[in-house]
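dumping this here before i forget
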Amino acid sequence: MSEDRSRAEASSDQRTVSEDRSRAEASSDQRTVSEDLSTDEAVVPEVVHGGLEAENRLLRLVIDVTSSDLDLSEVVRRVPALVTEATGSDVCFVHLVDEERQRIVLAGATPPFDEVIGTVELAIGEGVAGWVARNAEPAVVADKWNDQRYRYIPALRGEDYASLVSVPMLVGGRVVGVLNVHSEAERTYGPPELALLTGVANLVARSVEKAQLHRSLAEREEALEGFAARVVEAQEMERRHLAGEIHDGISQRLVSLWYHLLAAEDAVAEPARLDRELKVARELTTAALDETRTAIAGLRPSVLDDLGLGPGLESLARSLPGLATPELEADGVPVAGLTVELDIVAERLPPHVEVALYRIAQEALQNVVKHAGATRVRVSLGPAPEGVRLAVEDDGRGFAHDDIEGMEDGRSYGMVGMRERAELIGARLNFSSWPDRGTTVEVVVPQ
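structure:
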């Protein structure tokens, strides 16, 4: 910590008198709770440090703020000034946990540090606040320079403050944020102050949870709306595609069949010609039936309804163009350019889950055929520690990291469709790829 202290002291020596005056004025402004902290236009009563009455008043004010219709950013902006005044501290910081990135981010602070909101981050476990976020326990630090957990952050002017207390913001045992207060003079925060801060932190934690649930719901609704629009678009595209197949394929063959049957009628007296016309008619009939079965299978594979997902995936792997399963190999040499390996542990799942997984596998295999340039693809389905796992892995050309981000940002309908199908059944989809090392699409459905 001596190096941090030296750097901090050097930084402090460089501060101008005007900066000290600005900080002093900002600190003075924190001593009263003004109209800006009120949930309406009235002035919030002043909170005086010390005493049960002051603590109760603080809790009432925090409850008013956290139970209001204010958004989360406004709540964490108002709370720090209330906390510093009630505890006799000099500054207060509110850090929120970003679970996805495993970091805590400064979301609220007393002036002048409100200017760096959103720009200060710590990894979970880093610094005193990071330690509190990881361990879900409060930390009372009388001399932070002698505490190995402390990390100096220039933007927060750690050299100006000697002591701090940090408490977790808990919801059901889960840390959603960390509340810190700092004192310029060295002091030890006692149990009453720690209890007060813990109560405030838990009140704010409820606001954080409410905001997160609201944001998650809004994102889910937006995703569902977008998915519904894309489903309608996909249905229309599928209808046009099916109509084109029927018109250009089946109907044309049936028209040709009709003409050949007419010719056969005219050739009754010519056995050789009659045989030729009937042979062509039989071939056209067979081709029309094959195309009809293919179109029906594309709309709804009967094997999925009759036998389930496992046999459905096996049938899919053997029917896509360009694929050759190991059973079709001769002397170890595939008869087609792409060999499919199947590792299927069949088990029945709810129908909507089976359909979603089938369509994801279908899209992934089509991508392998069209784009991967692979020589081998492996389709696996079976139990996993988290639930049921489906994976499609190939040894093709793969993608660079930037290309994957582009696909996940929505520039690839196939990628977006797979992810949304997974989300609709509560599954997790992982997409990993490396240039010249292949691609893996994995879906895990929780039990």
